[in-house]
Amino acid sequence: MSVSPHQFRIGLATSRTHQDAPNSVLARLLNGSRVAIEQHLQPQLIVVGRTLDAMDHLGLLKNYPHIERFPYGRHGGLMKLVSRVVDTDPTRRLDAVMYLMDPVDPSSIFPEAVALKRQCVIHGKPFLSTLAGAQEWLELESIATGAAPNPELDATFDLQHEGIAMIAHDAMKGRMLEIAERHFDLLDQFGFRCATGTTGSLLNKLAQKIKGEEAGRNWVKPYLSGPMGGDAQIAELILDRDQCRRVLFLEDPHVARQHEADIQLLERAARTVTDYALCISNENCGERWLDLLQKRVALRAV
């Protein structure tokens, strides 16, 4: 049995519609990733009240010893998760947040929900708001401990049949190019790549430098800039479950953005197809995700 050298502390919450049924998003996550949780990672789970009630009702992770109960959301449970993301005490600080959000639940736009995601971006923590994103993170972090891959997920790591969108705000475009160059061989394996506006043009210039002018000319499919509707165009790809389900979105959380509604639309689209799409929203998580994705893809090929 592999054991993580670092016991992750993970905040866990779900929208009500993702909780109670035997085939709910919560049940599918914890049942499908049970081996990763109980054997390989053994994380400390800090669970908001009603989500933990649902776990108890459904018998999820029964007798798992590393669970801390937080109050119900209406009593400040999500607010306390925000505080734990930024806590300076390593015995209290969260390493990741899994907030499985239903985009039509009004609580998904409550200030504490927005702040939770924003502070995860600022502090370089994974904010996992879809089933697919949480499953993939647990799988990749299990691989990092030396665990064997989950064969039920093999198809999602066949990159020739997968797509990725690469989006970066102005202050992050340089970092996107650095990340893309460092992980170019992996990104080149994807069957489909797309980007918004200037980011797409810059990535194609990078590809031309690496692959040659002709071979790299259309390395990514460029859509409109975000403010002009590019986020909405990529959202449609995600909603159609066609070509693109992974999004690497390097956000700059420190500037006001006139097209904030478009950004939220893209994230909402990913949460609408929660079992299909995932969004990585900061550079630290993006780097680790791509490093571990390379390892998982290599294991699939063995």
Describe it:
With 302 residues, the protein is an alpha/beta fold. Helices cover 44% and strands 15% of the residues. The chain is built from twelve helices and ten strands. It has helices spanning 25-32, 34-41, 49-58, 77-86, 111-122, 131-144, 173-182, 184-187, 197-211, 230-239, 260-272, 283-301, and strands spanning 9-14, 44-48, 67-70, 96-100, 127-128, 163-168, 192-196, 221-223, 246-250, 278-280. The strands form two sheets. It has a five-stranded parallel β-sheet. The protein has a five-stranded parallel β-sheet with strand order 8-7-6-9-10, with helices on both faces. Strand 2 (44-48), helix 3 and strand 3 form a beta-alpha-beta unit. Helix 4 (77-86) runs parallel beside helix 5 (111-122) and helix 7 runs parallel beside helix 9. The relative contact order is 0.13.
Please report the total strand number as a whole number: 10
Main-sheet strand order equals: 3-2-1-4-5
Fraction in helix = 40-55%
Structural class: alpha/beta
Shape assignment: globular
**Unreliable runs:** none
Q: State the major sheet.
A: 5 strands, parallel
Which series of helices and strands comes N to C?
Answer: EHHEHEHEHEHEHHEHEHEHEH
Overall mean pLDDT: 93
Number of helices: 12
- Rg over CA atoms, rounded to whole Å, is 19 Å
SS strand fraction: 5-15%
Task: Tell me the distance between the termini.
Answer: 21 Å
